[in-house]
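Thread: quick sanity check before group meeting

JM: Hey all, I'm pulling together slides for Thursday and realized we never actually wrote out the predicted structure for the chain we discussed last week. Dropping the sequence here so it's in one place. If anyone has concerns about the input, flag it before I start.
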Amino acid sequence: MQKPEATLEELVQAGVLNDIEISAQGLDKRFTPESANFSRTVLEQAIAEALRAPNAVPIELLNRFSLVPLFDTTILNLPDELANVWAGTFGHGPTSRSALKGEVGFDLKTGQLIGPVAGKNSR
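JM (edit): ok, ran it. Output follows.
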């Protein structure tokens, strides 16, 4: 993460430092649409778990509303090879053939997570 443009060899070296043994060729073979979908699923579930609130926020002002949503959206550029899984922004925002637009909402009244919504950007 400290070096987004790392080569396969550099990623392998980082893996060695964390007791992960894999060749550059073996790592390259794991960059597939299936692994991209798996990563998306893991990301969605991790965010849902991390943001799950145990109780509603006890602020009387919020009781005047049925929903008090707070949303955040970001666009992350991805390698062009993932364009079939995550389409780019098509001139809206960062220029990339492949990008992940992630949106997470949180209801301030109930403490419930809305989303995350991640996937192909609308064209």
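AS: nice. DSSP finds three helices and three strands in the chain. The chain has a mean pLDDT of 77.
JM: adding both to the slides.
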